[in-house]
Automatic annotation (TrEMBL):
CDD domains: F-box_SF (cd09917). It comes from the Eukaryota. Pfam families: F-box-like (PF12937). PANTHER family: F-BOX DOMAIN CONTAINING PROTEIN, EXPRESSED (PTHR39741), F-BOX DOMAIN-CONTAINING PROTEIN (PTHR39741:SF2). This is F-box domain-containing protein.
């Protein structure tokens, strides 16, 4: 006897609400009775719109226990009120299936979304406009300065299509290498809004903490499925003071948004629901057209990108076959000569292939051959080159690239602060003195080309290249803190003699003033003779300890 047959359908449905979607599909195969009950729309609608805390998490392949959530209607605090389209006759079972498929194949759909900047709440100067954040260069957007940290700022952008699923936003705070202390002018927190105009926002995220580091920081909206044509980023709280005027600023180097333009989503049921949802918020993409016609028009508007993505996937398969059999030279030539090469070299799967084959000493041939085809390694490829050099402890290619003249270096690799950091992290644990020195030299050159002056100076102190520091170009606006640098030398190398050599060079080559001489002398416990100035006392003891300092320098990078 089937005891479920005597239970009301409503009671069975309430029991089944506690099951995840995959288990519901399995139970539906038990009997016709279960199948008819489970096909009841509300069960799968609840799965699509579930707001349980257990479902929070990033929208990634690994989050299979945290499915995407369909956010329909206007957000009020933590809750979402259904819009008219959410209550219409919808195939919720198919919608749920589409969401699961979308999650497992999200890489096939995610594109850069930002089309152009719309407005910024303030702008400090005419050349520091919002459009600068759309390109990876030396330009930036800056707010006006304020006397406190509390005044907020906001920036808004238009997306590439009238209806887009927004999955993540990425911001890159700007680090001012020409300012004393090299401050990074990031916000304390961010909040992201999505809407269908530049002033109406139907989705508002939680407030998220933003680190004050000059790196790309990703803020996920996924697993929520949120649609819109515009995004707004509220920048809440300021962190850094500009030394020149004592005011707080927020400065962004780059802003990106990622997601799914509706024109690339080959899931008609889900796409039609999202299209109707957009219409309920005033988006005029339908304009009395049938949903199928509107979707076809959106797809045709994105046809070039779709064709390029398809070509990139086909190329990826061919590249993987060549690369995995160890034919790195032909793999590089294939990548460099193909018209879809730039697209391939930005794909996540491309770098997964590089990482999967990591550790082979001959693997560096790929980067050398790619460079010989006239291709400049992009930022991610340059980082992959460093990781491979660290694994194999072979820094010849990296040293060759970084030791060339400025023009040749920028033609071969993309030097970034993160690239230098990876080299230094590995150098700290290297026991072989000559190899460690070679790594520090490579890191120093990378920092130089990345205009990260503070870390470049740190490498020069590590290498005891005091003369290079004294000849630091005057055109570069970097303010030296000589007492702090002297303390680093003495502490790092545990040598007063080396500290005296550095102090003596400072006194002889830099006009730093008597007060700095006094500070340096007191740091090193220099004993002055009667009527002797601090500067002369430092130089005298520097000469007396020169041989001891030279011995320390010679021993630093021996085996």
């Amino acid at each position: 006897m089937d005891h479920f047959e005597i239970l009301p359908a409503e009671l069975i449905q309430n029991i089944l609400r506690y099951l995840p979607g995959r288990d519901l599909l399995r139970v539906s195969c038990v009997s016709r009775n279960f199948r008819s009950v489970i096909n009841y729309a509300e069960l799968f609608r609840d799965l699509c719109q579930r707001t349980s805390r257990d479902d929070t998490g990033e929208w990634t392949i690994e989050c299979r226990r945290r499915p995407p959530r369909l956010r329909l209607g206007k957000q009020h605090g933590k809750e979402f009120c259904s819009s008219p389209s959410a209550e219409s006759d919808v195939n919720w079972k198919q919608i749920w299936t589409d969401l699961v498929n979308l999650q497992s194949k999200h890489r096939d759909y995610v594109y850069p979304l930002i089309d152009r900047g719309v407005y910024a709440s303030t702008t400090d100067r005419e050349d520091q406009i919002l459009a600068n954040t759309l390109h990876n260069g030396s330009s930036f957007w800056s707010s006006i300065g304020t006397t406190t940290t509390t005044p907020p700022e906001c920036v808004a952008y238009k997306l590439v299509q009238p209806v887009c699923v927004v999955t993540a936003v990425e911001i890159f705070p700007f680090k001012a290498v020409s300012h004393h202390g090299l401050p990074t002018y990031g916000p304390q927190r961010v909040r992201i809004s999505v809407g269908f105009s530049e002033h109406a926002w139907h989705y508002v995220s939680d407030i998220m903490v933003c680190g004050n580091i000059s790196e790309a920081q990703v803020f996920n909206i996924a697993p929520d499925i949120v649609v819109g044509s515009h995004i707004k980023i509220e920048l809440l709280g300021r962190r850094s003071i500009q030394p020149a005027d004592g005011l707080y600023y927020i400065v962004l180097k780059q802003v990106k948004a990622y997601g799914i333009p509706l024109g690339v989503l080959d899931m008609p049921v889900l796409a039609e629901l999202l299209l109707k949802e957009a219409t309920s918020f005033g988006c005029n993409v339908l304009q009395d057209k049938a949903p199928e016609i509107a979707l076809q028009q959106l797809e045709s508007g994105f046809s070039d990108s779709l064709e390029a993505r398809t070509e990139g996937k086909a190329m990826l398969v061919r590249f993987a076959a060549i690369f995995k059999r160890g034919d790195y030279i032909n793999a590089a030539q294939y990548t460099g000569r193909s018209s879809a090469g730039p697209l391939l070299r930005d794909m996540v799967e491309y770098f997964e292939i590089l990482e999967a084959e990591a550790g082979d000493p001959t693997h560096l041939q790929y980067y050398r051959s790619l460079s010989e085809t006239g291709i400049r390694l992009n930022e991610n490829e340059s980082l992959a080159l460093v990781r491979e050099s660290n694994r194999t402890r072979d820094y010849r290619l990296l040293s060759q690239y970084t030791s060339q003249d400025d023009v040749r270096v920028t033609q071969n690799i993309s030097c970034t602060e993160r690239m230098g950091d990876l080299i230094v992290e590995s150098a700290r644990s290297e026991r072989d003195g000559p190899v460690r020195k070679e790594m520090y030299l490579a890191a120093m050159r990378v920092y130089y080309h990345a205009t990260t002056w503070d870390k470049m100076i740190d490498m020069l102190l590590e290498l005891c290249y005091f003369g290079v520091i004294m000849n630091f170009p005057n055109g570069i606006q970097y303010q030296f803190n000589w007492p702090s640098m002297l303390a680093q030398v003495v502490e790092r190398h545990n040598s007063r003699a080396l500290g005296l050599q550095f102090a003596g060079i400072i006194v002889q080559h830099r006009r730093v003033g008597d007060e700095v001489h006094r500070t340096l002398g007191m740091q090193l416990s220099v004993k002055r003779r009667p009527h002797e100035s601090w500067g002369k006392a430092i130089v005298r003891e520097c000469v007396e300890t020169r041989s001891a300092a030279n011995d320390v320098i010679e021993s630093l990078f021996k085996n």
